[in-house]
Design brief:
Elements (H helix, E strand, L loop, with lengths): L4 E4 L3 H10 L6 E5 L12 E6 L8 H9 L8 E4 L2 H9 L1 H4 L10 H8 L1 H10 L7 E4 L2 H4 L8 E5 L3 H7 L4 E3 L2 H13 L4 E5 L8 E8 L9 E9 L5 E8 L3 H14 L3 E9 L6 E7 L16 H11 L13 E3 L1 H10 L1 H4 L3 H5 L6 E3 L8 H26 L1
């Protein structure tokens, strides 16, 4: 039997991985870790497991993989969230006895997972970064010289997603900063306080590239985020292919080479409207929300990791010039209504990505299960929100 793939995390990130591998005839096991996961409903999934305890106890993933090592011997394991990536990297030698891991050991991966190490690496590489005001502590929150708003970023964000459904905090004043620090303390997570770069979510750009074993980059694609969920501090809900930005490629490749990184990479930058500079935000060495946007461009990073790490036959990217967009439909429509006073989108701005060739986060006529599951979740959350507002109005 040909090797298959175990995809850890079943949000839109995982769905993009599954829909890249499944149509190639590769057996896929889905491991869902969040209550809002949908990828396990894909018709390309042959086996499903739920592992919600991953974000509290990383060893749970190791135990599940070792319990199934005989059945999944030689299979690839794709992480689609940072807790899974961290677990696989920290147990790389142990798990590599049975599995193909399209990632590297922790001594390399730590530089792109932990925000403090990532920040230090970028500075050593000469990449411009936002001003860091120091650790997210009560002492920092008590400072009188901070200019608000500020961003509060955990060293690793998966625990915040589990507890608060957000990966970072935006603090508009000292009170909100103290509250954010208290939440990090509750999550038992360290963090850093950064200046907030002004501008909209459409000022965020992501350079997507594959680094081979020799440290050579593939051709790359620049993706521009259009909108996030929630605005300013969330994940992408609409994005589009953007014209090349040579400076982003140079900064990304230099940073990854210094880390000794190999595999798929998504480096995020924000253009500072005050001087036009691109400031480095973070880099992900795993599938991201919009990775399904890339295959039509000729840069299928999931397929490239399979060819490289599993088949041992590195695959060259041949860019097609496709110039489309990606939309998480339910999130985009709900957020456009919920945050209408914050975003103030015109009808033209709202519809712009839909007028391009578009790939949806969950919709596929040949694989409708995830879309139906996402629609049911969106309806449930909307009804729950209305119910809370009714109760609050009566109290």
């Amino acid at each position: 039997m040909s090797p298959g793939a175990v995809v850890v995390g079943a949000h839109a990130n995982g769905l993009g991985v599954i829909r890249s591998l499944g149509p190639r005839g590769i057996p896929v096991v889905s491991i869902s870790t969040r209550p809002f996961d949908i990828a396990q409903h894909s018709r390309f999934v042959s086996e499903r497991h739920a592992l919600p305890q991953l974000h509290e106890r990383h060893d749970a993933l190791v135990e599940l993989l070792e319990a199934n090592a005989r059945r999944w011997d030689g299979w690839a394991v794709y992480p689609t969230n940072d807790d899974a990536l961290t677990t696989l990297a920290q147990h790389h030698e142990r798990l590599s006895r049975s599995y193909r891991l399209p990632i590297q050991p922790w001594e390399i991966v730590q530089h792109i997972v932990d925000k403090d190490r990532m920040d230090a690496l970028a500075r050593r590489a000469g990449v411009a970064v936002p001003v860091c005001h120091g650790p997210a502590t009560r002492e920092t929150a008590a400072r009188s010289d901070l200019r608000y708003p500020v961003l509060v970023k955990p060293i690793q964000h998966d625990r915040l997603i589990s507890l608060f459904r957000t990966k970072l905090f935006l603090a508009r004043d000292a009170g909100e900063l103290r509250a954010a620090v208290a939440r990090l303390e509750h999550a038992e997570s360290g963090g850093l306080v950064y200046e907030f770069i002004p501008g909209s979510d459409s000022d965020i750009y992501v350079y997507c590239v594959y680094m081979d074993a020799g440290g050579e980059p593939s051709p790359g694609i620049t993706v521009r985020k259009l909108r996030q969920n929630p605005p300013f501090i969330g994940g992408a809900r609409a994005a589009a292919i953007a014209p090349p930005e040579p400076s982003l490629r140079e900064a990304t490749v230099e940073l990854l080479r210094r880390a000794g990184f190999r595999g798929m990479a998504f480096a995020e930058f924000k253009r500072d409207p005050r001087d036009g500079r691109f400031l480095f935000i973070e880099v992900n060495g795993r599938a991201v929300l919009f990775n399904s946007l890339l295959p039509p461009t000729g840069l299928d990073l999931v397929a490239m990791t399979w060819a490289d790490f599993v088949l041992g036959e590195p695959m060259r990217a041949a860019l097609t010039g496709w110039n489309g967009a990606w939309v998480h439909l339910q999130a985009d429509l709900l957020c456009a209504f919920r945050y209408r006073k914050v975003e103030r989108l015109s009808v033209g701005e709202l519809l712009a990505p839909y007028r391009r060739p578009v790939r949806f986060a969950d919709w596929s006529a040949s694989d409708p299960g995830p879309f139906l599951a996402q629609t049911a979740l969106a309806a449930r959350d909307t009804l729950a929100g209305w119910s809370r507002r009714l109760r609050d109005g009566r109290s």
